[in-house]
Design goal:
By secondary structure, the protein is an alpha/beta fold. Helix content is 19%, strand content 24%. It contains 11 helices and 21 strands. Strands 3, 5, 6, 11, 12, 19 and 20 form a 7-stranded mixed sheet that branches. A 6-stranded parallel sheet has the order 15-14-13-16-17-18. The chain has a two-stranded antiparallel sheet with strand order 1-2. α4 crosses α5 and α4 crosses α10. The longest helix is centred in the middle third of the chain and has 13 residues. The two termini are 26 Å apart. The N terminus and C terminus are likely disordered.
Length: 433
């Protein structure tokens, strides 16, 4: 990234390397450590090797050498600015982070050098609002004495810290307050632990909330809609919790054998007769679907007082027929990742019950290839995980001709900051076949 490119800041560092010099939580300019990162300069969907700066370790900080970071589908959406949110560039994605504690601040009591730790989807919150006080930091709404609410791990501009940006786990190190770090249990493989910090907790939290891990769960019929990386984790967790019956709802008949191998029933959603046979039988359906679909026909599957819970985020929303809900007092609800307690509970539960996420570990040089494969659904039920030990100053990140900004649209209600990072505004032409 040359100075003057969209998203580039500064010039070269003292060693002559190109540097983006983005600031990360540095309230007084205390940026002192340069680390390698996989950086997106704009909405082209391409990441490249560059350097960023991390803040010095504060009194309650834990400095983490990142070993692995999972690639989440939400990374793809944000790198492409496909959601109706503010998208800040340059962007360093990644919120499924595991590594080893490299150093700690003088007031840290929870962790020591050498500990195995993880960082999930947020790295701080206001700590004073009603949600934070109830231990539900993921729903932090902010408080009067602070401008910021939840501090997302990346793509988040912090007003309380001079408008600085957070940068995520596609990098070799990160510095985080100890209260927003979790411990990875001994014996758990770090690479397979990484996706638990988003995919795992995103399913563990609603399953727990609705009682699947209690005696109530032993009488419940639970559906997991969608059988990608998220859906696979939902099935594994629900089965391990002892739920009476777990069913995968999928539009792909090819997923049947894999679902049944995990101990689940299978319901083909394109089979209208099969859907009618399952009417009014599910206590809970958790939808991981991230594409646009007709949600109303699935309400008929719920019992009276049944819950349809969204964890996937269709970019264009959903149209709801109120009659489908009112007639049987059914509930349409949502669940956002999980709290810090949920996150630690997820890791502990998975360790105790030998629940693992199926992963494909790749070198940093292959991240663009993995992002293209993810966009095409080639990962199936596996999660891509980057081996950050392979990210060195000389690492050349391969590009992939399948990544073409003409294949997606920046969301009309979203915002790209700075505007020059929106490649759609440059009149890019489709690549030749």
């Amino acid at each position: 990234l040359e100075p003057g490119e969209p998203g580039a800041q500064g010039g070269k560092n003292n060693e002559g390397e190109r540097s983006l010099t983005p600031r990360w939580w540095s309230s007084s300019g205390e940026m002192s450590r340069t680390v390698q990162a996989l950086v997106a300069a704009d909405t082209s969907g391409i990441v490249r090797n560059a350097t960023i700066e991390r803040r010095t370790t504060r009194s309650h900080d834990v400095d983490i050498e990142i070993k692995f970071c999972g690639i989440c589908h939400s990374d793809l959406h944000q790198l492409r600015a496909e959601w109706a949110i503010d998208n800040y560039f340059p962007m360093v994605a990644g919120h499924e982070i595991v590594g080893i504690v490299n150093s700690v601040g003088e007031a840290v009591t929870r962790y020591a050098v050498g500990d195995r730790v993880g960082v999930g989807c947020f790295v701080d919150s206001c700590r004073s609002c009603s949600s934070c006080k109830r231990g539900m930091e993921q729903y932090c709404g902010g408080c009067p004495e602070k401008k910021d609410g939840i501090h997302l791990t990346y793509n988040c501009k912090l007003k309380d810290y001079g408008g600085e940006l957070t940068f995520g786990g596609y990098s070799t190190a990160i510095t985080v307050d100890e209260n927003y770090v979790v411990r990875v249990p001994d014996g758990m493989e770090l690479s397979s632990a990484a996706p638990l910090l988003c995919a795992g907790v995103t399913l563990f939290s609603p399953l727990s909330h609705f009682g699947c891990n209690t005696l109530k769960g032993k009488e419940m019929k639970v559906g997991i809609q969608g059988f990608g990386g998220l859906g696979q984790m939902g099935v594994k967790l629900a089965v391990a919790m002892g739920v009476k019956s777990v069913t995968v709802l999928s539009r792909s008949a090819a997923k049947r054998k894999e679902a049944e191998a995990l101990g689940a029933q299978f319901l083909l959603t394109s089979d209208a007769a099969a859907l009618r046979r399952e009417a009014s039988s599910f206590d809970l359906i958790i939808s991981t679907a991230a594409a646009t679909y007709d949600v109303n026909r699935f309400f008929d599957l719920l019992v009276v007082d049944g819950h349809y819970c969204l964890v996937g985020l269709p970019p264009n929303g959903l149209h709801v027929n109120a009659f489908k809900i009112v007639t049987n007092r059914r509930s349409l609800v949502g669940s956002l990742i999980g709290s810090m307690k949920d996150l630690q509970d997820t890791l502990n539960f998975c360790s105790a019950h030998n629940v693992e996420c199926d992963v494909v570990v790749l070198e940093a040089s292959k991240v663009n290839v993995a992002l293209a494969d993810l966009a095409e659904g080639k990962n199936g039920t596996k999660r891509f995980v980057i081996d950050l030990k392979s990210l060195l100053p000389e690492t050349k990140v391969e590009e992939d001709d399948r990544i073409d900004p003409n294949d997606w649209e920046v969301h009309k209600d979203g915002k790209v900051i700075p505007a020059s990072a929106d490649v759609s505004s440059r009149g890019l032409k489709r690549k030749a076949a």
